Amino acid sequence: MAKEKRWQLLRDETKRQYELFDGLTRRLVDKYSTSGRHIHCHKGCRECCNLAVNSTYVEALCVAEILTDEQIFRVKSHGEKLLRHVGEISDLKGYLRMQRTVIGFCPLLNGDGACGVYGKRPFSCRSLLSTMESNWCGTDFSLLSRSEKQAFMDSLDREVVAFPMHYLAASRDLGEQFESRTALVMAEEFGFTVTGNLPFLLYLETEHGLGNIMCHGYDITMDFLHQARLFNPFLIAVDHI
So where are the chain's domains? Predict the structure, then answer.
């Protein structure tokens, strides 16, 4: 099967899964709202958009196919910035802190803070629904006092949130299931999966055409990533099945 045809089938299936996921999520939100509670996410709130957002490579391709020239330029700058700084990181906490304090917001945000690829955003973004005001999504909890942290945790509804965070657990768990299924379909097609930091995956596709390289198999993909000095376990994971 031609390379582009293989990827197109995977992209089409992922888009169908997005529609199914969105319908299920709407039901979760409606159920949550009927109890008098409220999901605080809204267009332009953006406070979660400097988290480290992971996706499968298929999802990244769904985004890549609609990028404008300006967005591609911002993705390139963002990817190069990640590569410059990630070599200084030795643990996951350090990576997550670097993402928020050094790298900053997603390069796909519009000037008004809204997502520039909203309809094609990955499951990890679709599933993150805040049960508290958006300022909590941007809070650096390492800077809070012990009493402030305790007050925050005491305010959480542990029956519905992914404790100790304030995001809806049901949608997050559902997103993980859909993401895992997407990775499984990719593994069935190629024999391995590629997942990682979404902007970095976009950088690998728009600057290096990694999707075409992946069609040649696991070994060639890994050789390319290492020789081009693009492989970093905080930014990309390649799992041979």
Answer: 3-240
